[in-house]
């Protein structure tokens, strides 16, 4: 019996020793882990993997480094949530992602401009971190405009993020202006000779429009009349429900711009009509204080840079509202003596197809251009066929492109299926085609609605959204959420950088009919 007791005491001592050693090891591991976490959370540690110096240079120029308080906000204070709110989990994820990029990718191939956009930045900046430092959203030093903006944010916290308005506070960008209406651009070279008159059109043939009083000209294509099946067949790959049922419609001859309205063209309108802060009512018309100015009131200065600093010139004019696009057409009609307007949805699809009935106006099915595997999704650039005709997510670098990089469709039109989405005159309805009479001539869509049709896909669209039959619609409220102005602008969109428009000209008594 005594022997068993001695053996039991021995086991207890052994177990206690093991527990004690384990406890010491646990403490050592915990302390070491905390030291490792602390050591890998310094700015110097971040620089080991992030070998792009411009990020650190822009950080040191930002208000998170250069400020009146002398405080320096480090990398992890924005790019990781506060401790106790998922810090370790996000640190492991970020560390694994960054290490993979460091060892297996070439930083020279990274699209840093795209990674700095709101779309991508929101995945690497944490709202909780912003709030942990900026707990008081209404300090005494805040301007009245800032108070209005922060009040709007506090009422819409589920839909907005701090970086919606403060995207560049962590990394200074001299081209990104915050909390300021800006003047921008100029229409055409001042040294060029200005056109004295609009183009004279006497027949249904291609022509080059010249805007009187400016140096701006653009090409219009004569689109022949005909019939086609609007929408897509049920068997079409990546088809959506609102693309059917297919109906045969007739379209009368008209003219359509070769490219989306360029910044050069839009700035001619802006320079001639810009309200420059003059009061307009909610319908965009001038009030009694404006009776001494021209009949058409143009845009007020935009809030921030409307071209996203991608460049102007022949790139499509973007970020303007539907109202702004309509007003441009009215102005263009006035100064040229022709009937310019936005295309109907039927006219748009008829022109985009260029006489074809397939998903694209070129050879190929949607799945021919989709990545077949995981490696393709990571590194795919799109096929040469689609790259020749469409600017979309795989080849755009996530920004608009100049029109000369793509080839035209059979009607001579460029970028109909990508680059920037385009407003149409029709109200949107998911079941619009079911209510369309088979054999209808020049249909104009529903008589009323809440949102308008947009067509054509964008520089961020996957292949399914750049098919000829793909449909979409405006998001009036969502596209204006972060406009801090009260009331919000009727001219410019704060939250949509992929919308543009293309004009059509009617073939009527003003164009030789």
UniProtKB/TrEMBL annotation:
Start and end residues of each NapC/NirT cytochrome c N-terminal domain: 13-175
Top-rank taxon: Bacteria
Keywords tagged on the record: Electron transport, Heme, Iron, Metal-binding, Transport
Residue span, Sulfatase-modifying factor enzyme-like domain: 221-475
Record keyword Iron present: yes
GO MF term list: formylglycine-generating oxidase activity; metal ion binding
InterPro entries: CTDL_fold, Multihaem_cyt_sf, NapC/NirT_cyt_c_N, NapC/NirT_cytc_sf, Sulfatase_Mod_Factor_Kinase, SUMF_dom, SUMF_sf
Pfam families: Cytochrom_NNT (PF03264), FGE-sulfatase (PF03781)
Cellular component annotations (GO), alphabetically ordered: cell envelope
Cellular compartment(s): Cell envelope
Record's keyword annotation contains Transmembrane: no
The protein's name in its UniProt record: Uncharacterized protein
């Amino acid at each position: 019996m005594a022997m068993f007791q001695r053996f039991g005491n021995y086991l207890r001592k052994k177990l206690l020793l093991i527990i004690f050693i384990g406890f010491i090891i646990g403490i050592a591991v915990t302390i070491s882990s905390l030291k490792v976490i602390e050591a890998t959370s310094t700015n110097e540690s971040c620089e080991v993997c992030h070998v792009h110096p411009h990020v650190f240079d822009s950080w040191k120029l930002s208000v998170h480094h250069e400020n009146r308080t002398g405080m320096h906000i480090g990398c992890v204070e924005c790019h990781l949530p506060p401790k106790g709110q998922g810090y370790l989990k996000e640190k492991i994820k970020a560390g694994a992602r960054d290490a993979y990029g460091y060892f297996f990718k070439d930083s020279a191939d990274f699209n840093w401009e795209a990674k700095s956009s709101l779309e991508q930045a929101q995945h690497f900046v944490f709202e909780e971190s912003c709030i942990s430092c900026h707990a008081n959203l209404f300090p005494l030093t805040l301007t009245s405009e800032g108070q209005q903006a922060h009040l709007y944010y506090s009422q819409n916290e589920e839909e907005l993020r701090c970086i919606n308005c403060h995207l560049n506070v962590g990394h200074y960008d001299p081209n990104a202006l915050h909390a300021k209406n800006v003047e921008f651009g100029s229409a055409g070279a001042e040294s060029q000779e200005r056109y004295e008159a609009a183009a004279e059109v006497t027949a249904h043939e291609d022509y080059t429009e010249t805007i009187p009083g400016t140096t701006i000209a653009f090409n219009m294509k004569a689109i022949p009349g005909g019939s086609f099946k609007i929408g897509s067949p049920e068997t079409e790959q990546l088809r959506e429900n609102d693309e059917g049922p297919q109906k045969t419609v007739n379209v009368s001859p008209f003219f359509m711009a070769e490219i989306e309205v360029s910044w050069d063209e839009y700035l001619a309108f802006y320079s001639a009509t810009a309200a420059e802060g003059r009061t307009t009512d909610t319908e965009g018309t001038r009030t009694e204080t404006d009776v001494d100015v021209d009949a058409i009131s143009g845009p007020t200065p935009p809030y921030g840079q409307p071209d996203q600093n991608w460049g102007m010139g022949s790139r499509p004019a973007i970020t303007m509202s539907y109202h702004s696009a309509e007003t441009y057409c009215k102005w263009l009609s006035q100064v040229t003596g022709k009937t310019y307007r936005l295309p109907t949805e039927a006219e748009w699809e008829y022109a985009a197809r260029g006489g074809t009935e397939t998903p694209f106006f070129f050879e190929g099915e949607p799945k021919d251009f989709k990545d077949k595997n995981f490696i393709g999704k990571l590194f795919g650039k799109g096929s040469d066929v689609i790259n020749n005709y469409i600017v979309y997510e795989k080849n755009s670098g996530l920004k608009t492109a100049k029109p000369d990089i793509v080839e035209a469709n059979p009607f001579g039109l460029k970028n109909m299926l990508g680059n920037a989405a385009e407003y149409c005159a029709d109200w949107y309805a998911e079941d619009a085609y079911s209510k369309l009479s088979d054999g209808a001539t020049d249909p104009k869509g529903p008589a009323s609605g809440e949102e308008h049709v947009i067509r054509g896909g964008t520089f961020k669209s996957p292949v399914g959204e750049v098919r000829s039959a793909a449909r979409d619609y405006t998001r009036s409220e969502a596209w204006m959420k972060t406009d801090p102005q009260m009331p919000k602008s009727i001219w410019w969109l704060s939250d949509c950088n992929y919308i543009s428009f293309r004009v059509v000209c009617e073939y009527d008594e003003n164009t030789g009919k």
